[in-house]
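User: Second chain of the day. Same drill as before.
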Amino acid sequence: MIIFSAATAGSNRPVLENAVLKLAEKEGKKLKIINFIDEMIKSARDLNKFISSATLPNLDIKTLEVLKRSAFHNIGDQIRTAPSYDYLIDGHMSFWWKSGPINLLNINDFKEITPDFFITVIAMPEDVLKSLSGKKEWIDKDIDSYEIAIWSELEIYTTDLISEALSKKNYLIALGEDPKTLYDLMYAPHKPKIYISFSMEHRDTSYDQLDKFIGKLKKHSIVFNPSKLDIGAYHQTTDQRLKAIIFNQTVRRDYHLIDQSDMVVIHMSTLVYSSGVDSERMHAHTNGKPVLLYFPFERYSPFTPYFVDKMYKNENDIVKDVAKISRGALADSRKKSKR
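Assistant: Same format as last time:
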């Protein structure tokens, strides 16, 4: 199994991926992480020993083309040498350099190595900026949170284009997401993928009940949790451009999480209006995704069930239905593997 992981520099994705590596080792899985940029630099130093991650984007396009092909070939050799391992390849689809984009990878680069699926690890721009400020290769680089937000969008967009051309999936994974989410995408693909929808802006209750419910769902499914990428800090920003792009990206990101899921589960434990929940259930419903609604209240509007496939008054009934779907999917996968 090969997974290609895209992200901006400074996203701290090794934190997530190393946690997945530990889970894999604990379960007896053989998993290796390969850094694509490091492989490019190894190839580059055969030409010029002074090339580093700090100077790599300064190279001309033709030189980058040679280096990335050499890197892919070397990675292919590593995979062929140890075919019993699974591989997580870290890379960038692009660089954001000197206030502009540099395209790094395209569809032709994946001829030698075709990933089983792609992931794009996403983090908040301000967190990325803090991370970059601690890296010596970025100390003298003029980049701000707004440009990082654009770079993040570029990584998602490019990875989507390449994955679609290869008929593969690109899963968005928030940096703060439970490592089990990525682990299960790799090693429990039969589990139904769920986007959990709930009110984030207008809650008068804690997340304790929701977190316990998500924990139950995770025993039988893969859950994408939008709260793992928190936009709350941007409510107080004075940079209106940054606030606008983060807000718009939040909508596109959550729609992407829905599109990469098999179903949407709405957890409505309190009667508050949420434009996000309303929009998400309509997006899911009109795109053929089953929508399950936890709604423990007696009275409701005719509009409440209109974009919903099934309503529940008890959380455990949702968990039972999801478990049943998961068991059926596992049985089907086992039948296919025996053919």
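The chain has a mean pLDDT of 88.

User: Great, on to the next one.
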